[in-house]
Structures are given as structure tokens and as C-alpha cells.
Design goal:
With about 375 residues, the chain is an alpha/beta fold. It contains 13 helices and 13 strands. The chain folds into two domains: about 170 residues, Rossmann fold, CATH 3.40.50.1970; about 180 residues, Dehydroquinate synthase-like, alpha domain (Up-down Bundle). The longest helix has 21 residues. The structure holds nicotinamide-adenine-dinucleotide (NAD) and glycine. The site of nicotinamide-adenine-dinucleotide has 31 residues, from helix 2, helix 4, helix 5, helix 6 and helix 10.
Amino acid sequence: MKQYTVHSRLGDYPVLIDTGLLRDLPSLLSGMGWPSGSRIALVTNPVVLSLHGKRIGDSLLSAGYRLETLLLPDGEAHKVLGSVSSLLDQILALRWERREPLLVLGGGVTGDMGGFAASVLLRGVPVVHIPTTVVAQVDSSIGGKTGVDHPMGKNLIGSFYPPKAVWIDPDLLMTLPLRERRAGLGEIIKYAMIGNARLSALLETGIQSLGGEPFDEALWSEAISESVSEKSRIVSEDEHEGGLRMTLNFGHTFGHALEGALGFGGILHGEAVGLGMLAAARVSERLGLSGGLSERLLFLLKAAGLPYQWPRDVSVEDLQKFWGSDKKTQGGRATIILPVSWGKVMMTRDYDQETVRLALSDL
Ligand code: NAD
Ligand code: GLY
């Protein structure tokens, strides 16, 4: 088992990674102070419930837990305030109490909404994340960012709310469709490009196996552990995104705008991050800040089976509509993270729309 500790102002928490970890879920829960007989709300979606939730629920029931299963709708298009509001209605109807935990089982969409609900319910109830997609295991379950989308832009409503623990079982990914697994590689490539040399080396030799079939459990476990170690280190140092954590948004300013322009759900988050990183690399090259990075990235995106061509029908003007409301916008200008070498990025608001337009047309 691998274990990392994330430092947070509201309390440090462990991230555990092990194949088959969930077989001993009752022990994990009692270790956290919720013994048999406690009430647990399993927050998930219908897809994950049918694949994994029933087995998990049965193990809790047979260990004597009082289980409440609560469903959020599936898909980015449902990551909205109304879905969280319905979830809160259901939990409040159960007369939930402040010490009773939410166990949030699912991908980033379920995790972001479940975490947000936990942060506002009774002014905060404990939440444990059990992430079930690559994006959620390597990124969204760690660091306490929660929230929902708004027609004005992505993740515009939310909170920083650290979980009590994150329990990762790479085996859960065996049921994940190949396209979703590949999308998660977008975030893993990001960690390599912003500075994790071990991930760069691993991707150099392993990208085709990671992006292909059959599911290579050993290689995936290594990629997940290394990514978790990188994310845990960064958010421990800068929980509320004062500086270092902004580097995790490499590829996200363009990526989020692309998601918005295509309509939330029109492209997978990890796919949009991949294209967003490519756009940022081309902008950096056009500004004379770097050379050759987009070629190396392009090789990885292709080998991973990720999209590498900018959608023809999305223009700079379309993106601008969403930049204006990006959370890292200051004085009307979005901050973008640009790569300057492989393993090093910088933040800037010093670029012009024409450079961005030319960079996108290069793609
Ligand atoms: P997702 O949650 O929509 O999951 C993708 C699909 O896979 C869904 O249909 C889901 O039901 C299904 N699924 C989940 N687990 C499965 C499994 N084990 N087997 C089969 N199917 C499974 O998408 P995602 O890529 O996990 O998350 C994307 C979201 O995460 C975006 O909204 C993004 O903004 C957010 N995000 C948040 C953070 C953060 O720090 N909070 C970081 C990165 C991404
Ligand atoms: N996914 C970006 C962050 O956690 O800051």
C-alpha cells in the first residue's frame, strides 16, 4: 500500500492507494472513527452504483453499518447547482447529523458535487472520496476543490473543502471505458510537463500501454501513485492557490474555455486539457519562450490515443467568452500558464489575442 499525507488548514488527511483496498472498507471506516452501527451516506451515480456501488454497499450492510444510498445524475451537463440542491434535499430529509460522513464514490463530476454538498450541509459534514476514474484518482479527489459549473463558465461556484481521507483502488478502473481512461492521461501528461521527471520517464516508455488495451494494472498503479505524490505535494504547499497550485492549471485556461465553447459534456475534461496544453505550448513558441515542446507533447497525445487537433468550429472569439469569467482572470485578462521547457512553466497575462489566434491556427 502507498500512503501520502496532504496538509490542509482544516486538518491533514491521508491518501491511500492499493489494489483491492476496498475489500476492507469496514476496517477503513472504523479506523476513521465510524464503527459498525454508524450511519453512512454513499453518494454516487447510477452508472457507478451498478458497477461497484452495490458490492460496496453490501459489504457495509453486512458489517452492520446503516447505509443510505443517494444518487447524483451522471455527466458533466448535470454538474450544476440544481443537482447539488436535490442531493441536499434528500440528505436533510434523513435528518443528517454533523458527524455523519458522506462516502463519495465516482468520477470527478460526482466528487466535485458530493464534496460541495458536504461543505455546505450543516456548515460542513465529513467527506471521504473513493474516486473511480483516472481523472478523479490522480487529480480531483485530492486538494479539496469542490463545485459546479455555471452557464458563464466552468467550476464558477464552489468551495475549498478538504476530505477526511481519499481511498484509491486502481482496480476500479478496469470497468472504465477506454476513452475515459485515455482522457485521464491528459492530467498525467500535465504533471510530467510541469515538472515530474519520473512521470516523464514513465510516459516515454509506457504511454502506448497506458492508452491501450488490455488494462495494465501494474503500470497504471505506478502512474497513479506518482501523480498522487505530485498533486499531494503541490496542494500541501499551496492549498488555496496563491501561487504554486496555479501551475496545475497548465492547459486548463484554454481547456476550460474549450469545454464551455463546445457545451459542457461536448468534450471530456482530460481531452480538453490535452488540447489546452498543446495550445499553450504553441503560444509559448510563438512568443519565442520555448521551442520544440509542442512536438514532444503531440507525440504523447497521439500515442495516448487523445485528440490532438483543435476543433475547427471553435474560434478565439468563442474562447474569449469563457476567459472573461475564468476564476484566475484579473483586470479582464485571463492568466495563462505557458511551458518554457519540459518540466518548467510560467504564469503570464502578457500575450495578445493575435498570437493566440495564430497559435490555434497552427493546431
Ligand atoms: P466523470 O465524473 O463524468 O466520469 C466519466 C464517466 O465515467 C461518467 O459517465 C461516470 O459515471 C463513469 N464512471 C465513473 N467511474 C467509472 C468506472 N469505474 N467504470 C465505468 N464508468 C465509470 O468524469 P471525470 O473525468 O472523472 O471528471 C471530470 C470532472 O472532474 C470535470 O467536471 C472536472 O472539472 C472535474 N475536475 C475537478 C478537479 C478538482 O480539483 N476538483 C480536478 C480535475 C477535474
Ligand atoms: N485540478 C487543479 C487543482 O486542483 O488545482
